[in-house]
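W.,

You were right to be curious about this one. When I first looked at the sequence I had no strong expectations either way, so I just let the prediction run and decided to look at it fresh. Below is the sequence, 457 residues in total, followed by the output.
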Amino acid sequence: MNKEKSEMLGKMNVRKLLIKLAIPATAAMIVNALYNLVDTFFVARGSGTDSIGALSIAYPIQLIVLGIGLMIGVGSSSVFSRAFGRKDEESMKRSVNTAIMLNLVLTFLISGFSYIFLNDLLVFFGATEGNIGYARDYMTVILIALIPYSLSIMFNNLTRAEGRPKIAMWSLIIGAGLNIVLDPIFIFDFGFGLGVRGAAIATGIGKTASFIYVFHKAMQKESSLKIDLKHIYKVDFSMIKEIVAVGLPSFTRIAMGGVLIIIVNNLIKQYAGTEATTYQSIYGVINRLIRFSLMPGFGLVQGMVPIVGFNFGAKLYTRLHDVIDYASKLLLGYFTFMFAFVLLFAEYLFMIFTPENNALFISEGAYAFRIVALGFSFITYQVILSSGYQAMGYPVRAFIVALSRRFILFIPIAYLLTYLIGVNGIWWTFFAADIITGSLSFLVYRYEMNDLRKKMV
């Protein structure tokens, strides 16, 4: 089995291989993002438009835990893929066992801290009087599911790294599909009638089911992960450093998303006055629409990562160059298409999420989403660079790329523009940050591709 996977990653036509690995990853990520949209839709229908803002308030903790799972998953996958390319089975086994224990410890600490200081955290996250009750109902349940959620994200990355992307796909599909089915049952009066709390219960059940499936598959003989439960407590501390270093850009990118949500919600609270709850709901919908609309692009990159990691480890630079080049072109085309789609259909998208037909929510939401979408095409090379650097084991470079948009530029621009033009400055901040970082990333991308071409000679 290992030989077959090595042959596939090292010799199969890179375009066909990219599509082969990207399709299941893309399908899984679309379904996973779809559940967030459906979750938001059902919450809005069950508890009103204002309740959407509560999901946005609660989201930073989920993003931090997602970031932990992704950090450990991406970091251990990079270590695993390079060991796979070298046929170093002992390093492959140690990378998986170490990743499991690291994930358990970090996620447990985050969940416990959040439970103890939940009310203070919600206020800090920007909750208003109109949505703090909803946010509390949601978080008291969702915190329980964070450990299986983080583990499932980690294992999804590892199963893709060993060349079994369909397992990762089905893990996410099972979790998201179960969530979608259970949402109306737990939220509406014809079922348990639990409202926002019901949405959290459905999400928790779905996340747990996703983890159970992918972990079961990882324990099979066919898996190259070789999990050793009898010695699971044996942690390779030197490997922890490498896993965290390589995966840190992923954590930074995701966790900074959580920081941005906190900052934006507080800026909305400061500048939107009596309409702050509505604007927080607008921001919550935009976040979910962005995630759903761009997920196929991120799925493509997920398919690229194991190919890059394996061929870099095997020093097959021609294949490395070709897969990055092809992925970049596909990603640019898709992000540009989504920009055009948002321009045409923004109002219709927001109509879906307001049972009260809130005119302010629809008009201001469509306006905001169109501005944000202006920068979609510009993030192409930032995504490619960050993921490519991680797969090749260049954590510092990946870290700088990930940090540039979400921290170095976005935060000061957001404070400046909201001070100058009010709440609409938030939406223009997205555009400005994407333009600047996208342009810089393109220049770095060109340099790196030229460097690869020199190694091909």
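Here's what jumped out at me. The chain has a mean pLDDT of 90. And, maybe more interesting for your project: The two ends are 32 Å apart (CA to CA).

Coffee later to discuss?

I.
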